[in-house]
Amino acid sequence: MIFNRGRLDGVWLLDLEKRGDDRGFFARVFCAAEFEKHGMETSFPQMNTNFSPKKGTLKGLHWQTGGHAEAKLVRCIAGCAYEMLVDMRPGSPTFGQSEHHVLDPSERRLLYLPPGFAHGFLSLEDDTEITYMVSQPYAPGAERGVRFNDPGLGLEWPIPVAFVSDKDRGWPDFTR
């Protein structure tokens, strides 16, 4: 695995270190020892999938608080996803800052975000699907969110947001 630091504190982009021949390749997408060496979470008791049939579908921005805060390891397996992250950790040197990445299945890149990050994605193609492992099971009472179009965050999306849930549209603005 090839570990590339993201711009925000604790974010990593993981590229596969492929070993192969004319039959294809083999590569690790997770190694607890290497994750630990980079200060990353190594326990992922739950894996989720998220499917968006229409281009322009936005899901997020969500995170969990307290003892339910979750690290995520995200991979796009179909379509193309514009991943948006916002550091919601008050003591962090990158608190309130955002970072985005395009995940395309042909690149087979993974995105790691530590606990305390708001996460959302916009489907850039029809039939976009992401999978992600989380370090904590979903806890409804610990869920928080922030609006994708909060003027205080100034997040830029590469295409118009065409579909968003009432829940995601109704999250409050970010306050520092």
Explained architecture:
The model has no long low-confidence stretch (mean pLDDT 95). It is globular, with a radius of gyration of 16 Å. The strands form three sheets. Strands 1-2-10-7-12-5 form a six-stranded antiparallel β-sheet, with no helix packed on it. A five-stranded antiparallel β-sheet has the order 9-8-11-6-13, with no helix packed on it. It has helices at residues 32-37, 166-169; strands at residues 2-5, 12-15, 19-21, 24-26, 46-52, 58-64, 72-78, 81-87, 98-103, 110-113, 117-123, 128-134, 143-145. The protein has two helices and 13 strands. It has 176 residues and is mostly beta strands. Helices cover 6% and strands 39% of the residues. The longest helix has 6 residues, at 32-37.
